[in-house]
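Homework-ish question, so no full write-ups if that breaks the rules, but can someone show me the predicted structure for this set?
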Amino acid sequence: MADVLDGIQEEIPRLRRFAMVLARDRDRADDLVQECLTRALSRIDSWTPGTNLRAWLFTILRNVHLNDVRREGRAPFVPDAGGGGSQGAAAASQEEDVSLRELGQILALLSNEHRQILMLIAVEGFSYEEAAHICEVPVGTVRSRLSRAREALRQALRGTGMLAEAGD
Amino acid sequence: MEQRDTINDEQFQDFLDGRLDQEARTQVIQALGAQPEQAVRIVELLVNDAALRRLGQAMLEPDVPQHLTAMIEASRGDPGRAAQQHRNSSGPTTPKGQRAYLRPLAASVLFLLGLGLGWYGFDRIVPQLSDSDVAYSDAMTAFSFYVDEPGAPIQYSHAELDTFLPRVREALGRDLSPPDLLAQGFEFLAGRLLPGADGQAVLYLYQNASDPGDRIGIYVWRMRADGHRSTPLPREAGQFVSRSWNDTDLGYTLLSTPRERDFDLLEGDIRKHFDPQPAGT
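A: Not a homework solution, just the prediction itself:
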């Protein structure tokens, strides 16, 4: 039991990072992590030793977020749903450099689904199968969603001029 | 054979995520040689993924709020009971009252500092990766793609210097022809424009006459602000060794696999070519 608790504690920084991607607000993110830990600790017997503890925690965290969104009647943040949201923002920063800060800003303009899948695969290093489990979708959906997310990010960065010449 | 010449999206993503075995990976590399647009796209996506990882690293905060770690500590006796206690506790446990005044204060400081940070940056003032760190990472990412793959696509070959050099001038603001490194056994193979830490960067790729050809790369990027000449900084990461330095407005990284070679002579020739005025003068 102590090992599992140690493992959960070690995952808190990663949980906070993913919660920031979901909630986009530090206070809300920490509230999500707190509720996630509460649920995890109360259901700790349901975790199967030998399976991926991190994936289990991320699944709980995402579910907490979805419940939070449903309870408060808030729609997930999808700025480009109306068309061109991210492109417009990208165009506005044509004269600016694209650093990590701006990458963060551009990432924030992607849809919630795209941000989540990029974080899970490219940053957290989950396998497609683990990401599918966390997002409760088929592996094929993860693959197609990831493809679209990468392309959306690429196009948004191209909009900044950062990649405009690389493909010529 | 025709199937080998095309890459479907599934192969594309699997290649990016390292899910292909060596044979499949080689097939993709060969196919990329025949599809320059796809090759450019895959390089861009590799660079983007590397940038996302750096961003993720910057977002990772080792200092965890005490109320979160306290939950774990309280659970070491009775996890279920501790969780229930947290669930039943009244009022928010997040110290929002404390944050309430810190947040506008922090925002004001950021504003005064002129940092147009987004929502990531708001909570991530420190640590910030320097432009040099970002450029170094970009250089490693770009070189790692080209150094081991003889079939890697060439954007501008040595025969296309007339086209390449004006693009270099646009990207870096200077006329920077590739240095002549024949005295060290390396011939200019190709040049490529890449996204850099601040606008564009250029990778000069060289190869010697060994079989298979051994490659080195020179990654040049434009700095955000004019700086001072620096002496070369040697670094080792993974399978590569490198030396990084900068002159007044450009940064340079010489990359190589850690094989026996005279790095001093290579570096000397390169610096003399790009910046005849030596450091410290």
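Now go work out the reasoning yourself. Hint: The CA atoms of residues 32 and 39 of chain B lie 5 Å apart.
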